[in-house]
User: Fold these one by one.
Assistant:
Number 1:
Amino acid sequence: MKKGDLLGEISNPYGKDTVKVYATNTGIIIGMTLSPLVNSGNALFHIARFEDSSAVEEELVDYDEALDI
């Protein structure tokens, strides 16, 4: 994902007052919460950042191809 990409939306339990969540950095999502309820300050995503994201992307494509994903 790239900095500024929309990652999701948070709303109150009634589905109102939504807030969009955007990526603050370019990187690779390596983890995310699956809990339907979050509190202020909870981590929603864990993002691995690299100096050269394109090189990492190429390595991941090669890795996926090797695993036949």
Number 2:
Amino acid sequence: MTPSPSGLSEAASGLCIFSILLVPFASAGLALMNTGLSRSRNAAHTMVASLVVVGIAAGAYFVWGFSWQAYPGLPSHVVELGGRSWDWIGAERFLMRGLKLDGSPASLAAWLGMVSVGVAALVPLGAGAERWRLGACAGSTALFAGWTYPWVAHWVWGGGWLAGLGSTNGLGRGYFDAGGSGTIHAVGGVTALAVAWILGPRRGKYSLDGTPTAMPGHNGVFVLIGCLAAWIGWLGLNSAGAILFAGSDPGVVALVGVNTSLSGLSAGLASLAVTRARFGKPDASLAANGWVAGLVASSAGCPFFMPSAAVTIGAAAGALVAVTVPWFESKLYVDDPGGAVAVHGLGGLWGVMAVGLFGKFPSTAPGAKGGSGQWLAQLVGVATLVGVVLPMTYGLNWALDRFYPQRVPAEAERQGLDLYELGAGAYPEFMTHTDEFSQQ
């Protein structure tokens, strides 16, 4: 196959471009799900916040985010520790100056990063729904897209120290995450947990004895349509990641598509089965979240899973979400209307570990069939996400909250954020709420 001037074959370059064009469907899907899982008096606010988040995330990533993410072969800052080189952060120029947007792998990675950072930034929005100020949400997104996300993306996709664990420490191929189970979704998930902790639960969510009150979303159709849109976006996200970050040939995209689809489908079915067994009837919102968790879990190793493994990975992710969403709510008192912490946080961490357990790498690669070395590399990545990224993103949002309180006042929650922050509701011809805070 004739190589193009970009460094990729013409087929790989064209397929990568087409795949990146599909990624915004993932953002649309998550926006619809977050909106549907919110109550009607916050629907317009959630959708407007989604547009703000995607726009600010792309802007911050353009201004300085990609400068710190970079791409293998581009300048970066390296620290010598213990006689080994540790690549910590990219050293590209701001505003993508000097980066030739000519279809080269680096330019395609920058474009993919610009659209995928919006997907990641939508995850905390689901956890902070119904009580997060629009201005604070914008500020938090700028910190996320300009600082938190690029650091992790460099460690994994920019030639950083996590990816180099194979060469520096002999751990298989090094930390591996082709489509972003950890880099996109777990980073978004731990940020969602930090946001939910800082904002606190919605008013009226917990009774005086700590029992959670059901606050169902207003539109299940939005949630289910969002699942289908997310499926399309994930096919593009995983395919582009396999080509750019796993060095896969264009033909592997067929395997990526099958694995992505099987993982999502099996996860949705597993969530339905678990909720039916636990509650007597299947739960539509948990099944939808389970579906997305399966897509999340498929991303890390999508080019190197067997289809049967993708079914197992997805089913485990769907069952995990069906159990942990209520557990976070009732045991840890984490009020997460969109289920973002379980879906993207736990689902992403599970997807990362699944690479070490199920990944079948080419025989020419170090750690050809996973093994303990690859498993340990993935475990180091999980430890980094939980032990480094979670405290960092919590600290950033805590500092922001000191300067600009992130939570709206009680009156705004009672009235609804549509009227309080936007001045108009999503459904002006209908009564959208009643006062349910009489006990507080």
Number 3:
Amino acid sequence: MSNKLIEFRNVSFRYSENGPWVLNDVSFQIGENEWVAIIGHNGSGKSTIAKLINGLLFPQEGEILIAGKKVTEDTVWDIRKEVGMVFQNPDNQFVGATVQDDVAFGMENRGVPREEMLNQIDSTLKAVGMQDYRMTEPHRLSGGQKQRVAIASVLAISPKVLVLDEATAMLDPNGRKEILKTVSQLQSKQELALITITHDLDEIAQADRVIVMNEGERWMESEPRNVFSKMDELREIGLDVPFVAILANELKKIGVSISKEPLNHEELLEDLWTLNSKT
């Protein structure tokens, strides 16, 4: 792992004094420039983790450090300069009359000089492929376009961490694929730790590492290929297994030699093609 950027140290959280623990003694680390997917069924605690990272919530037990700084009510505004979040419904994040206004909002609040702000608007909109919609009213955009603008608005403040909390949940398959492609390109080009919160295993293939949450605890932590191989266990905790993993498993049952657990259809087809060329 690269240098530690996020640390959860024995974190426990519940929403009310007498309520159940939503997180129970959770510990993990995320490094600089690392892509970590946090997955789990509804109620597993994954979205609570996102809110704790950004100081929207504070743990009752344990501690959270962002870039070496403990997340507290006194440090929360400094923390939010380092952590940008994109939520499931982008309409809840829009504050500007146009795309340009929305991207500018966070920089205006931080007193960024106008010339620097204009350059940042240009570069962030170009990074997410929305430069041609600069003067468009946000409500006229498609769901995928809105999420691109939401991502641009967060990137404009130059965070060290980008958190996508179920950010593709409301999109159709094509929109979901485009957003994941966009964030993958951004993460590879910029010095950025990326955390994707999801219940969809199809979204985790590109991540460096996966943290699987179950009933408030860190149930598993591994690379995506190894997670995909745990089909029966994943089903037991309420997660849908990707079709490509199911197909690969059925092929193995009938004697087809699959060399590795496929992350996507392309890998499976390549494996089958290689196998066929040897026969």
Number 4:
Amino acid sequence: MKLFYRQYGEGQPLIILHGIFGISDNWVSIGRRLAEKFDVYILDQRNHGQSPHSDTFNYYVLVDDLFEFIEDHQLINPILIGHSMGGKVAMNFALEYPQRVDKLIVVDMSVRSYPARKQHMDIMTAMLSIDFNTVDSREEIEDIIRKKVKSPRITRFVLKNLYRIGKNRLGWRLNIQSIYDNFENVFEGIDSPYTFDKPALFIRGGASDYILPEDYDLIKKIFPEAQLQTIDKASHWVHAEKPDELCAVFSKFLEKDCEFSVY
């Protein structure tokens, strides 16, 4: 599958993978900072953003998509950064193709499986409830989403997936039906007989429960060179809430000062 991407800068390739319901646009600000030192590629994963849609949605095909992207663009020794679902894609890829990865950074995602979360179900229910045959304004859609998704921040995040198909018709960029039908796949744990023995960094939000202290031993077992870093007072949406702190952590791990640069 040929994925949509945004590209900034030059140097060693660095690939950023967004989380569930996300788009490449969510990472442009941080990607541009990193582009002072790296050749940054921010991808829309399948069924998200401007990338193609598919009824098949699991980590096997997401890893295959990433492999195809790296092959097509002839990227040598890329660094992988993945947030949430994107972190699981990056982990699975690094374990499957360790020779193709220089360093791994995972933002607020552990290796274990997770139960489905009410917040995710509320988002999908809200998005699927929109009948674009009868609703034709952003304001109407926002009102419907707000009734089901109480967080203003999450509502804004959801509405980033809204786009105008024609003069009088809106739609969702992401393939919400396929994501809903395959949602249990998103929460699968890492199931691999391999280890990734190169540098790895796991970053957790201090106010998030996606990486817990009891996860550390399993992370270190599969990624023996892993460092663990906490960004205080950050929720799961670390890149949105604490971009400066996140870039500072990236810079220290990557040994290049990117945190205050603007591409």
